[in-house]
Design a protein that fits this description.
homodimer; Aspartate Aminotransferase, domain 2; 3-stranded antiparallel β-sheet; Aspartate Aminotransferase, domain 1; 2 domains; globular
């Protein structure tokens, strides 16, 4: 069919549906087993960092500022604090370098706020009854899982091309004392791929908050994960918050999970010195310190920010063709149908596919029948409930390029079939 | 003086005090700077494990059951679960292998119990108002810090040569619904060095508990840390608890902090499958998984339990002379005074020195004047308060042997002077 489905006649749509159904049967018969669910680096990406495995031996240990093998220092090896201070764009007293998981840093920061409150607050968050978080959606399912698990009520806020809908954010934050937090993935947002505009960041930093203990969880997971040479700039929210007189508002997070190794990288947290001192006080009761040997491995391998940036270009070389394959398949097979829109990310790990309202679950089910596993429909919304049942996240980095082509054939045909079923 | 201070005449004691005071002045003039505060492995011990740093390269990664560099598995690399299941003496479904800190596993397990409760319980611990922990004392200061930080009330229970005073433990646990937990360091107890008798372990496993959500935190930190070839056997409390019909009672913890690297080892938790499932459910919201590359390093380096045991013999060869130096100095300089008793540990990391009641703080202060840093008096009791002001923990592993001799000269003279001041 050459025209959009909405402009086609009922007969044309019936013919197209029959073709899509027949094609679905053929695809099912292929017996594929492909997985587009999670933002996992592929083997070739992980291989880029293989020197990390062995770059710290006894010589490097002996040359470190302190013995990284032994106990000590709650906030990280000094040379790691220097590197990750740069990575996070903050001063040396504004960063904590931790273990392998930035999600754990975020989860634990929320747990501490629930139990003890935060600097400037007058209550543990658990007394907000219920504590509420703003959740720009579509968003990152694991953020939402943390909130749901910890009993924090989630309020979905729409996403735009410039970040969350700031009029709505400002209204909610200014009016509701129980809104204590907000999730943000400011660069190459998971899954929509957009980067917050300077105006969005400035408004987030400056907006009045009813709750004195309001915090922004700024998960800059894709800080250096560019697919182009001309990334949209991102303002440093800690700088903006200081300028606006709210230095304690943002908690910044990052990691090398998608720079070095997804399971064996280094995570970091950055914030005002007052927030950092508060976190360190709590962490001191939890642990004697992070794995400093792995921190040293990262310092030795990357050296400095230029080393990280050069490394990320090698990642981009591997994954760019995969992103291009997704776009090419969509443009060839789906664009003209007019029933779906695909994001055009310039970095990060995801595509966001918006289908006809009421078809996302069906699309995911159809793809599963044909052996292509997708993130469950709804996962990009709080409580796993997409009110319009239309958003699907695609993760193209882990499969091989030829697998992407196969998977996209399945996905595009599933979108066609589900849409035509819906349109009747 | 040849006799015990208590049997000496006032004149003899005055002479001895003058000698001790003069000696103190000489020691102060030496300008020493020694540290006997923390149970830290020394450099030579850490060097024993240097192959761990580089024993996993791309070849070992490729041969693993799954790619340890990538995301995945919340409870540890399968081969690490096999090794640490053996280490903890439990089945493969009863162990979680984590990051570098067993303290974090304990802290986080308590936080989860406070927020959510535990299997078989009907309330979050935070509703016990206040939740109480039994704390065999002298005990491990960081256990007490976790409780104090999290608002858990601590009840000190006396230690005997066979473990905590079980009559008192049984009474408290049977009668008080708010007693939800208990700390135990069952082998080479920190700091007294004793190992729990089989009867103690059986009574802990079998005793009736008023609180249905009562848990024993079994921190077997020194499971394989023997200084002799004939360690006192320790019963497996999970087996004993199953036999007594309380399979969910114990949570077992261990780590390689004092086997491989203090700051870059591997920690593990063991418990009934029901407890493990509960922990995994919570951990799944906190993290995408532990550092599996470091787990693989440990598997490759140690191989099996025999490998760990052989390695611990090399540790013992390094630290045994340090323990002997402490004993020799005590026996030569202090034993005959009758004013102090020293533990005779057959493993672990500490000595426990019991001085005259009311002198421990003074001893620590005098030693500090002479440049020897000791763990603060009282640290081995809940809230840092030794009711008798008599217990001091000595940690001999980190200093060099000649430093131990110097430090013990200072400590012994400080005990003499403080005791004679007290005796008048």
């Amino acid at each position: 069919m050459k025209s959009a489905y909405s402009e086609a006649s009922p007969g044309e749509r019936d013919d197209e549906k029959a073709r899509a159904r027949a094609r679905h049967g053929e695809l099912v018969d292929l017996g594929l087993a492909l997985d587009m669910t999670r933002g996992k680096p592929c083997r070739a990406q992980l291989d880029l960092g293989n020197e990390i495995l062995t770059c710290v031996g006894p010589t490097e240990v002996a040359a470190a500022t302190l013995d990284p093998r032994n106990y000590g220092v709650i906030d990280g090896l000094p040379e790691a604090k220097a590197l990750f201070g740069q990575y996070m764009g903050v001063g040396i007293g504004e960063v904590i370098v931790g273990g392998n998981s930035s999600l754990a840093l975020m989860h634990d920061a929320i747990v501490r706020a629930l139990l003890f409150g935060v600097p400037g607050g007058e209550r543990p968050w658990s007394q907000a009854k219920p504590a509420r978080f703003l959740c720009p959606s579509p968003g990152y399912d694991r953020h939402f899982t943390v909130c749901e698990h910890l009993g924090i009520e989630m309020i979905a806020v729409p996403m735009t091309e410039d970040g969350p809908d700031m009029d709505e954010v400002e209204h909610l934050v200014a009016s509701d004392d129980s809104v204590v937090g907000m999730w943000c993935v400011p660069r190459y947002s998971n899954p929509t791929g957009i980067t917050y505009s300077d105006e969005t960041t400035r408004r987030l930093a400056a907006m009045p908050a009813r709750a004195r203990d309001f915090r922004i969880f700024w998960d800059n997971a894709y800080a250096v994960h560019h697919l182009t040479d001309s990334p949209r700039p991102l303002l440093n929210i800690l700088d903006a918050a200081k300028e606006s007189g709210h230095p304690n508002r943002p908690l910044l997070f990052g990691s090398t999970s998608k720079v070095s190794f997804a399971g064996a990288g280094v995570a970091a947290m950055a914030a005002s010195e007052e927030n950092i001192a508060d976190q360190k006080r709590h962490i001191s009761a939890q642990s004697i310190g992070p794995d400093k040997v792995n921190q040293l491995r990262h310092v030795k391998f990357f050296g400095d920010m230029a080393g990280i940036e050069a490394h990320m270009k090698r990642h981009a070389t591997i994954i760019r063709p995969k992103f291009e394959a997704v776009v090419a398949a969509f443009d060839t097979q789906l664009a003209k149908t007019g029933v779906a829109a695909l994001s055009r990310p310039r970095g990060g790990y995801f595509f966001s596919l918006d289908a006809l309202a009421g078809t996302a679950r069906r699309i995911v089910d159809l793809a599963a029948e044909a052996g292509v596993k997708l993130t469950p429909a709804g996962a990009t919304y709080p409580y796993g409930k997409d009110p319009n049942d239309r958003n699907i996240r695609l993760a193209p980095t882990f499969p091989e390029p030829e697998e992407i082509d196969q998977a996209m054939d399945v996905i595009c045909n599933s979108v066609k079939l589900a849409s035509l079923e819906k349109l009747g």
